[in-house]
Amino acid sequence: MDPLATPTNHGARSTRTVRALIRASTADRRTREAAREWQATFDALPEAVLLIGPDGVIMRANRIVIERDGAPIVDQPLRAALASRFAESGTALADALGAGEPLTKAVFRLDGQAYEVTTAPAEIDQGAVRMVCVIDDVSERVAVEQEREALLAVAEQARLEAESANEAKNEFLAVMSHELRTPLNAIGGYAQLLELGIRGPVTQQQRLDLERIMRSQTYLLSLINDVLNFAKIESGHLTVDLEDLAVHDLVNGTGDFVRPQLRERGLVFTTTPCPLSLRARADREKAQQILLNLLSNALKFTPSGGQITLSCT
Hints:
There is one protein chain. By secondary structure, the protein is an alpha+beta fold. The chain has helices at 10-28, 32-44, 63-69, 78-98, 139-195, 204-235, 247-265, 284-301; strands at residues 48-52, 58-61, 106-110, 113-124, 129-137, 242-246, 268-271, 279-283, 307-310. The two termini are 75 Å apart.
C-alpha cells in the first residue's frame, strides 16, 4: 500500500506527482520533448524535491532546490548534502532516510526556518530511483501553531488561576457564613427565652425591643443562608436532602418566622388549613426558605393594615 496515499499535506501530493512522473518517464523512454515536459513539471512543483538513487546519492533536484540552495547538490551523497545544510538535524534526517522507512511530516530546523520533510520509497526502473524526498518550508505554519499553543497555555493558566481564586472565595464564604450563623442562632434563642419571660417579667417596651432584635436576627440569618447556599452552588457542594413532607406542617410553621414583622406593620396573617394527606417531595430547609421568601415579598408590598393569606391546594 502506498504510505502516502491518504495524507492531505502538500509534500504528499508532490511525492505522488513525482512518482507518477517517474513511471511516465520509464514507460516513455524519453523523447527529447517528453524529457522537457517532464523537467518542466518537475520544476513547477511548489516544494523542494530530491530524487535519491539506490546508493544514497542525490540524482535530481527541482528548480526550487537549486535556486534556494545555490551550492551544487546533485550527485552528492544525501547524508553529506543534508549534514552540510542542516547540521545535526540534517545528519539525523539522513540517518532516518537511510533506514529506508517512510518519514512523513518530520519537521527539521535550519537558520530559524522550519522544514517539513516527506519521503516515500520509489523502486522504479530497476531501482534507478530509490526514494522521493520533498522538503516544504512550513516556518509560517509552525510559527502560527507555536503562537496558538502559547496563547492556549496563557488561557489555560488564567483559567486555573480563576478557578483557584473562585474556589478560595467560595470556601471563604462558606466558612464565614457558617461561623456567622452560629452566634446569630444563639441571639435568636436567647431573645425568645427573654420574650417568653423565662428569665423574669418583661415590660411592654422590652418586648418591643426583643421583637426588633429577633426580626433583625431573622433577617440577617436569611441573608447569611442565601450567601451560604450561593457559595455551595458555586463550589458544587450544595446538597439536597429529599424527603416526603406534610405540606400543612410547612405552612403552619412558617408564620412563626415573620410574626414580629407582621405585628410591627399591623398586618393580619392567616393560613387556610391544608389537607393532611397533601405531601411534597422536597428538601425541608429549602422548601421552608421558599415560603419565607414568598412571605417576605408579601410583607414588603402589602400596605400597613392589610392582610396576607397563605393557602395550599
